[in-house]
Backbone:
């Protein structure tokens, strides 16, 4: 997600995170949920991330569901 400058800037703006805060919290479930929520909210972002990761977009959406609230 952060490999695309426009997508990264939009994510940081929407979440209020700074790059340092994002790096520091990457292993936290809330951060993972925020990233997956962001991707799932805009299909082109979801598809692009899935392509980079080499997974089906449904796998990313399913990961968000498994994280819960």
Residues:
């Amino acid at each position: 997600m952060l490999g695309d400058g426009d997508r990264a800037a939009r994510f940081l703006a929407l979440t209020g995170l700074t790059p340092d805060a994002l790096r520091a919290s990457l292993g936290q479930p809330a951060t993972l949920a925020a990233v997956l929520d962001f991707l799932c909210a805009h299909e082109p972002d979801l598809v692009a991330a899935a392509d980079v990761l080499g997974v089906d977009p449904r796998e990313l959406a399913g990961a968000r569901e498994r994280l819960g609230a």
